[in-house]
Amino acid sequence: MQNNTETRRFERIETQRLIFRRPHREDAEAIFTRYASDPEVTRFLGWPRHKNIDDSLAFIEMSDKDWCRFPAGPYLVESRKTGELLGSSGFAFETALRASLGYVFACDAWGKGYATEAALVMKEIGRMTGLIRLYALCHVENLRSARVLEKSGFLLEGTLRKHYDFPNIGEGGPGDVHVYGMVYSVREVD
């Protein structure tokens, strides 16, 4: 379990354009309506499209568990200018030293550089939390996401065949994914 001070340090991050913050129960309706129930937005995601607000509440409960175990977790991404929910980004920690990165944005937030900005912010938070490895899986047909990862400095490490289920595509089994990753420099201990 993480130290409360350490967790609070990363619960809210602001950039010039965006606010990254930990999700709360009262966000469920906005999560559902802005992006989690949209078939186009969720097409290439590894989690099932939300069918109702209870699915969004379940995401928030999962998020709370992640935030209790690790120094960071899923974030909601909002516009600093308007306060509007744009999407989500964040980490799925596997260990204290390794995590995967994810992001999803509402259709009207596409093409504005938010996903690239989110990936860069997550890279920096990963560095500050002491990660050694950060990676992302990307469906081989998701060219927009691949471009975001490349612009954010992630390296294409390879393709895993029939590796990951994409429940919103209906391929009839696991799909192929590109693996993009980065390794933080390991500092010598005195």
Structure description:
The chain contains six helices and eight strands; from the N terminus they run αββαααβββαβαββ. The longest helix is centred in the first third of the chain and has 17 residues, at about 55-70. The mean pLDDT is about 95. It has an eight-stranded mixed sheet with strand order 1-2-3-4-5-6-8-7, sandwiched between helices. The protein is an alpha+beta fold. Helix content is about 35%, strand content about 30%.
Structure in a nutshell:
The protein is of the alpha+beta class. It has helices spanning 4-10, 28-36, 39-42, 53-69, 114-129, 143-151, and strands spanning 12-14, 18-21, 74-79, 85-95, 98-105, 133-139, 155-164, 175-183.
Strand order of the largest sheet: 1-2-3-4-5-6-8-7
Order of helices and strands: HEEHHHEEEHEHEE
Number of strands: 8
Q: Which structural category fits the helices and strands?
A: alpha+beta
The main pleated sheet reads as: 8 strands, mixed
Strand content: 25-35%
Please give the share of residues in helix.
25-40%
Mean pLDDT: 93
* End-to-end C-alpha gap: 26 Å
Distinct helical segment count: 6
Poorly predicted parts:
none
> Which term fits the overall shape?
globular
- Rg from Cα: 16 Å
Spell out the blueprint of helices and strands.
Layout (H helix, E strand, L loop, with lengths): L3 H7 L1 E3 L3 E4 L6 H9 L2 H4 L10 H17 L4 E6 L5 E11 L2 E8 L8 H16 L3 E7 L3 H9 L3 E10 L10 E9 L7
Parallel strand pairs: 5-6
Antiparallel strand pairs: 1-2, 2-3, 3-4, 4-5, 6-8, 7-8
Helix pairs in contact: 2-4
